[in-house]
Amino acid sequence: MLLTNIAKIKREKELKFASNSDEKFVYHLTCKDIGLAFWNSIKTPLLVGAFLGLIWACTSIKAPTFLLRLAKYMGDFVVVFSLLCIGSFLEKNSIVACEWYILVICVSLRFILSPLLGIAFSKALKISGTLGRQCSILSTMPLSTVAYILASSTGYGQAAASSVVFWTVILVIPSRKGQTSPLSLFNLANERLWSGVFG
């Protein structure tokens, strides 16, 4: 997020320079730009919500029921409207709004590299059975709407994010079926290994 905000600042300076001069634009990164990019990253709604949640979790104050329900309803609204934004963006462009190679790389990272990282962490932390399998499967879940929200807030990668969200939703079922063999290979599909721990 920090890098995309720096790129956004660079683009704004380049546009401002191009309107005032015909010379070639040369960008020099300054501490002021880094500070501004950091501040813009902190102000995003996702990070603000995460910080507020962490602060609340550090206190011993019990959340009122109405506040929890209100937060749940508002969270559901965010998902709905974010999906509407993705749908309207894809309707104006295409279901593959970015270059094909970008889509293939992103989907491959999601469905191949992510579960392999989940398996690696499970083996490193000595997690096996059901919990290890969940770690691997959850890493291949669709990107949902977070990727598009981040892309739209920074102004970069909206085409790639919307296409990847769409195709990860379409391909999540076949990818789960294909995970059986790597899970079995790393002994993460064995239910009996994990049931003995809590039995």
TrEMBL record:
<comment type="similarity">
    <text>Belongs to the auxin efflux carrier (TC 2.A.69.1) family.</text>
</comment>
<dbReference type="InterPro" id="IPR051107">
    <property type="entry name" value="Auxin_Efflux_Carrier"/>
</dbReference>
<feature type="transmembrane region" description="Helical">
    <location>
        <begin position="70"/>
        <end position="89"/>
    </location>
</feature>
<feature type="transmembrane region" description="Helical">
    <location>
        <begin position="156"/>
        <end position="173"/>
    </location>
</feature>
<feature type="transmembrane region" description="Helical">
    <location>
        <begin position="37"/>
        <end position="58"/>
    </location>
</feature>
<protein>
    <recommendedName>
        <fullName>Cation/H+ exchanger domain-containing protein</fullName>
    </recommendedName>
</protein>
<dbReference type="GO" id="GO:0055085">
    <property type="term" value="P:transmembrane transport"/>
</dbReference>
<keyword id="KW-0813">Transport</keyword>
<dbReference type="GO" id="GO:0016020">
    <property type="term" value="C:membrane"/>
</dbReference>
<keyword id="KW-0812">Transmembrane</keyword>
<keyword id="KW-0472">Membrane</keyword>
<dbReference type="InterPro" id="IPR004776">
    <property type="entry name" value="Mem_transp_PIN-like"/>
</dbReference>
<keyword id="KW-1133">Transmembrane helix</keyword>
<dbReference type="Pfam" id="PF03547">
    <property type="entry name" value="Mem_trans"/>
</dbReference>
<feature type="transmembrane region" description="Helical">
    <location>
        <begin position="101"/>
        <end position="119"/>
    </location>
</feature>
